[in-house]
Design goal:
This protein is mainly beta. Helices cover 0% and strands 52% of the residues. The strands form two sheets. Strands 2, 4, 5, 6, 9, 10 and 11 form a seven-stranded mixed sheet that branches. It is globular and about 40 Å long.
């Protein structure tokens, strides 16, 4: 059974940091790219970052460049999203997803999401 389980969300003050984790199982991790998406209330889902497990290439949406870092621990089948200098506009449910390339498509594998709330 394919599973993607996010963790690490929470409530943090503006300027603070959080590290999200996405633990994957049920598929060959090294063959997939893992992406992070977020969706705020009343807004469309937005791609945040993605990492290709095969070559380590990373991608970021402009609004998080320089603040967020995606990384992968292939031995643990886990992808991390280190989020620094958080802003209230980063508040959203964050999802990880897996697909054969970046960015993951809707038909890829998706986690259940973790809430990130940044207070001003």
């Amino acid at each position: 059974e394919v599973q993607l389980v996010e963790s690490g969300g929470g409530l943090v003050q503006a300027g603070g940091s959080l590290r999200l984790s996405c633990a994957a199982s049920g598929f060959t991790f090294d063959d997939y790219a893992i992406g992070w998406f977020r969706q705020a209330p009343g807004k469309e889902r937005e791609g945040v970052s993605c990492i290709s497990s095969s070559d380590g290439r990373t991608y970021y949406t402009d609004s998080v460049k320089g603040r967020f870092t995606i990384s992968s621990d292939n031995a643990k089948n886990t992808v991390y999203l280190q989020m620094n200098s958080l802003k209230p506009e980063d508040t959203a449910v964050y999802y990880c997803a897996a697909d054969t390339g970046c960015p993951p498509r809707r038909k890829g594998y998706w986690g259940q999401g973790t809430q990130v709330t940044v207070s001003s």
